[in-house]
Hints:
- The chain is mainly alpha-helical.
- The chain has a domain at 5-141: yeast vps74-n-term truncation variant fold, CATH 1.10.3630.
- Helices cover 58% and strands 11% of the residues.
- Strands 1-2 form a two-stranded antiparallel ribbon. The chain has a two-stranded antiparallel ribbon with strand order 3-4.
- Helix 2 (26-40) packs antiparallel against helix 9 (185-220), helix 3 (62-72) runs antiparallel to helix 5 (91-103) and helix 4 packs across helix 9.
- The protein starts with a helix and ends with a helix.
Amino acid sequence: MNLTTFENYMLLSVHPNSGKPMAGMFYHGLVGALLTDVHKAERLQIGNEFLVVNDTSSVDIPVVDFLLHKIGTFKEYKKISYWIPQLATNKVFKKLMIEYMAEKKLMRIDRKTFLGYPTYRFFMIDISIRKTLVHTLRENIKSEKPEYLLLGLLVSTNLDSLLTSNTLTAKQVKQACVTVQNKNIVASLVAKVIHKQKLIDLWIAIFILFWVLLIFMGAQK
C-alpha cells in the first residue's frame, strides 16, 4: 500500500495499543508531514523559509485544500516558522487532519471531552501496515542510503527510537534520520521550528514555576 508521508507519520506517531500520541509536538509533526507532501507535489515553494503556494485550486482532499487556501490567500507571505504553529493549533485544521485518517480507513477515532476540550485516541484498523512500515524504514537505513522523507521528520519529534532493533542501534537510526533531514528543506525547517517551540514551552514552564514558588513562599510568611 502506497501511503503519503502524512499518512505514514500518523501511523507511527500514535501508540498501537493505547491510541495515544507518542510524538513530541504531535500536531506540529503532522503539519510538517503534510507540508512535505504538498511540497513534493510541487504545489508549494519555499524560499528563504517563506512558504509560497503555486496553485490554490482544489485537490478534493479537505485538509490539503484548507492548507493551500490558508497559506495561498493570506495577505502576506509568511515563514514556515509562522505557519507550523498556526496550523497545528487551528481547531478546524486539526479536525480535518483527524477526519482524513478516518476517511482513509487507516484509523478509528475515539473522541472524548475533558473540561470542555476534545481529546482524541487513534486506533489503527490494520496494525500490520504499521509493522510493515517500520520494517521498510529499518531496511532502508541498513542499506546505508536512507531516502524516505519520513525519516527526516521522525527525529524532530523523538520518534526515531521506534526504529531501533537488535541490528540497528539508536546512533545508526539517528544518523540516518539526520542525513535525510539535512537533505530535505522541509524536514530541516520543521526540525528548526519544533526545536524553537520546545525552547519557548520550556521557558514558559520555568516562568510559571517561578511564579508558583514565589506565591507559595509568600503564603508561608
